[in-house]
Write a structure and sequence with these properties.
single chain; 2 domains; elongated
Amino acid sequence: MSVLLIEAFHGGSHKQLMDLLQEELQDDCVLYTLPAKKWHWKARTAALYFMQTVPASANYRILFASSVLNLAELTALRPDLGKLKKVLYFHENQLAYPVQKCQERDFQYGYNQILSWFMPEHKLAHLEKVIGVKRNGDAYHPEGLPGQQKSSALMKNSNTHCESGLCEAQPGLYTTQHEGLPSPLTVPARLNTSEASESANPCQEEDKEHLTFNLSHILSGPDYQQRPLHIAWPHRWEHDKDPETFFKVLLKLKEKDLPFHVSVLGEAFTEIPDIFSEAKKVLGSSVLHWGYLPSKDDYFRALCMADVVISTAKHEFFGVAMVEAVYCGCYPLCPKALVYPEIFPAEYLYSTPEQLFKRLQNFCKRPDTVRKHLYKGETAGFSWAALGSKFRSLLAAEPREDL
């Protein structure tokens, strides 16, 4: 067991990545996790927990973890782990994460991330040579980024090589050897819900009648090309996914008496934004699906029946759910911001909620145009078939004395 996998928030895309690596590495790795609950507490205390629970071993060569873990604290508490080659995967940037309320940001979470990838001078020089950053005082910033974008881009785009040919920068992967690997997405047979964790929220249990996708009802209804547009929203029910904008657009479609169906997928947690219950009442019979689907087969079946998949996210490093939906045949509509322009062609991007409404309005009037559309982007570069050998190479490399 030469690869030590640590995940302090084992749910959603965090769980998807770790489970895939564990499956592929099999006997060459060991995985230690904490449940996907109360991430604030996990970010503050996970290092102490894993310090006590991860046994010492002479076989470990590489430590692979997500940035929920304060890696600096763990290596300080466990000097034996500090000697390993370390790969840190960033699922988000806590310094730029949208705040839910108008209040002072808790700086600790972003500070933890900075400490976890802080490097001495010789490593910074290596970083400058490999990924093209320049010193600005005591900080390093990627070239060609204006003003405020620079501060968040260093962590978001810590690797600027995109081997899939789809983008100039990739989400989140940082390694002390700077191999520049893009974010993984599993092959179709292994695709899973990016927003799922180990258990459904009890607040959604009351809606079980909405959790089973009634394929027979759809297939026995009007002609496939003439049935109402089917819109999917497969994201966590939390504020950073901006459900308010999504539902405002749908309610405007409803006001215009435009025909559509909607499947609101993804998992809810303890605090559910009020807009969900409000929108469900108004949308009424337009709702085909409402809630988390614990079965990945049911989830992908729902996506395969949808025509359009929407993102209204305010913070996104990659967007696994959107790529999965595209693979299932959905036409994507994403903000012209965040990571989306690096992945999706311009045709699938919108700049304002008004533009999103106009696109959906046209699709509601002519759903057949969406169903006949062939996606003009590329998803194969994000599959495990394309990236598996790169990850195996990364996790097989020996640590070097100059890193």
